[in-house]
Design a protein that fits this description.
Length: 124
Amino acid sequence: MSKQSTPLAPVDPAVDAPCCPPLTERRVPAETAAVLAPAFKALGDPVRLQLMSMIASAEGGEICVCDLTPAFDLTGPTISHHLKTLREAGLVDAERRGTWVYYRARPALLRQLAALLAIEPTQS
């Protein structure tokens, strides 16, 4: 019997469940790849990867843009562009409070990305 006899349901980046088996176990369906690729693409930039790390590891689960911007030798508008890319990819949520915007990671999508990339240790 083929491993791919049961089609996978389309992935929903908002659902807090693994999207699919690790890519080492099964081919990623085109629909799943199309949904997850923007998140991987967004993380493919070094500044965005650092921003994502700062947001995901922030004490209390969120961080103000006022704490993110000084960490880089970039202009505020450039940081805003990178944060917008992370938002549009579904990796972070943002909430405006007065003049500042606070960012928090979306763990459901991060878990789906991690599950897709998971490598089980091989038995020797």
